[in-house]
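Can anyone check this?
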Amino acid sequence: MSNDFTLTQLRYFMAVAEAGSMTAAAQSLSVTQSTVSAAIAQLEHEVGQPLFLRLARRGLELTPAGRRLRSRALGFLEDAGTLLAAVRDEDAELEGEMTVGIFAPLAPFRAPVILQAFERAYPKVHVRFFEADQEGLRLALAQGRCEVALMYDLGVAVDAESQVVETFAPHVIVAADHPAAANPFGEVSLRDLEADPFVLYDVPHSRDYFLALFRQLGLTPRVRHRASGYETVRSFVSRGHGYSILNQRLHHDLTYSGGSVVPLRIVEDLPPIKVVLLFPSLGTPTRRAQAFAAVCRQLYGVDL
């Protein structure tokens, strides 16, 4: 193995990794497919192992070595651009494309607001959001398919590099005609709801968090319905099929089914969910990812 690779080979590698095929990458780079193929072959020769698996009818898939290279190449190429700007005595303005992973239930609440603020501050950076569940986001980060991910801290490895953005305390939602909705203080005890049917927000890690809240109090909920959609949970509750526990609060109480829910503070002291920015474990965060974190800090006033 030698270290005699070029920045062009790395850029071509990143384009192929993004497109999943030599042909599509060549089109995006405005070069011939043979040029891209030759660059990838030379890069694989330099690193001493294959970077892609050639799969019949499925295009190209990164090997473990390819995933490691992809996760580190983003920052390397960015540093190269910064170095060139410094030599030219120019300000290295942020530009290019950046993929941001975001936990799907958070996307409607946070993605449009953050994107608007980020585009104002960095108009030459094109942000693409990749929505997924917690596991999908961790995999995307490990494979270098996104530079940063906005997600819950549930199931995040202790040694992962993360920054807290917000915290959300759990709250109960009930139908407008539920007896608890009439509480003058807008609060309820989970102990008073234990016998009622429960609508569980059933997505990985979140379900474990919600069920753990009951265990912490020595309670066992009567799980009547499970739903993987945030709005599905709210709609079931609004139509009297049970109560639920959520963390995100909407600015209104209407649901897709036409009913409404009433949010209630839980009187018991229960742990909140943290919203974090998670970065790839390999390499340092790119300048674009750091800028994205700074915008989140400006929006939510959290010292990241």
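Reply from J.R.: I decoded it. Confidence is low (pLDDT under 50) at residues 85-90.
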